[in-house]
Amino acid sequence: MAPHDIRRPFKRAAISDQQKRRELSLLRQAQNRRDAQQQARCLASSILSLQSAAPESQPEQSDIEIETVPESKQESEAFSKDLDVRQASKLRGPEVRKWFARQLMLPEWMIDVPDRLAQDWYVFARPAGKRCFVVSSNGTTVSRQRNGSILHHFPSALPAGAKIRDGSGSAQSYCILDCIFHELDQTYYVIDMVCWNGYSLYYCTAEFRFYWLNSKLEESGACNAPSHYHKFRFSAVPVYNCDQSGLYAAYTGVVPYAKDGLLFYNKHALYQTGNTPLALVWKDENCSQYVIDTDGKGEIPSQQQVVLELQDDRKLVTSDDPPVLFGCLDGDIIEKSGLHTGNLLRFAIGDGGLSFADGKLEKADLIYLGKSNRARAFADSYSKVLFQFMVRHSPLKIDDLLASINSANDQEKTPSDVEMVG
């Protein structure tokens, strides 16, 4: 039997390049960290050499020399996120909603089972509720939903999260948490930590972020019951190594919230805004009541529906970067409906379905239904469309995930067994 048959006995026809993009994302992140570290070393080296060699009468040479060191684009972007969040909190109207809507790290939907699932991934049960950013700063706390609109404005026990008698903390003290607000128990379940007490975690791995999340959140008192200076309770979710026992615990274990599928995080992944294949969401009817998307009436439509963005040249694309092209809209429809570039439009997938070639979308049978809900900020991602398509035709099952873990374990044992026999 060929090696790939042992590793992936359940492998299905490729409809996505998700695994390839996972590998490329990890390589890019590793390079970004090396670039940032090299930039810091060069800057420190330049400053030290100038301090020891440059005469005190010529301090202007320091500025010239430092400017010759090229700045890492990724490092600059990371710093701008930290510095802009407090300024963005003061913005109003569409600008602030648009800014916050682009700050969340959005998991892709699991199209295929990642390699080394048991070794390199965490898994946890995703709480049902409203995904949001929670920012505490200058004595107040604000939560913003995925589309950037405000959910709550409240005092909290997070650093700089409430105006209390001994002060609200320094201007540099602020926090950014990635949460899901669970309506039933009025609790913010923290699924990731982006900044804590002014310290950025953008360039920290998920392994480190989860460690800090559990220790720092408990120390702050944010997990305590609500009080005058702490309106909502915060809670961390139980996170497991994605081996067989961990996956089973996340899938079947009892949690204090309603589940809405499972979330998988690559242990080595940094926090990056937008869609990423290094965080994945998966669900079935046993761990979520929302497996198949519903329409505006809360009913499952007979045909799968998708939301796409209208671009120039009548192109219809997903929210991915780069976007995936699904087709072009008829010019007559655009003219009669008064549509413009940037509009989010809803379509049904007709009897022709979706066709794939070499892991890429080749053709989509789209039926125009009208404009999307105005509350939406983005079109659907390619992985979501594919996951919903798979759910209706050939779903990825929990047995497939367990089989991947078991076959990987068997493959790891094989070399040692062969050596012993030899």
UniProtKB/TrEMBL annotation:
Residues 103-279 form the Snurportin-1 m3G cap-binding domain. Transmembrane segments: none annotated. GO terms for biological process: snRNA import into nucleus. Keywords: Cytoplasm, Nucleus, RNA-binding, Transport. GO terms for cellular component: cytoplasm; nucleus. Pfam families: SPN1_m3Gcap_bd. GO terms for molecular function: RNA binding. It is found in: Cytoplasm; Nucleus. Functions as an U snRNP-specific nuclear import adapter. Involved in the trimethylguanosine (m3G)-cap-dependent nuclear import of U snRNPs. Binds specifically to the terminal m3G-cap U snRNAs. Belongs to the snurportin family. PANTHER family: SNURPORTIN-1, SNURPORTIN1 RNUT1 PROTEIN RNA, U TRANSPORTER 1. This is Snurportin-1. It comes from Gossypium stocksii.
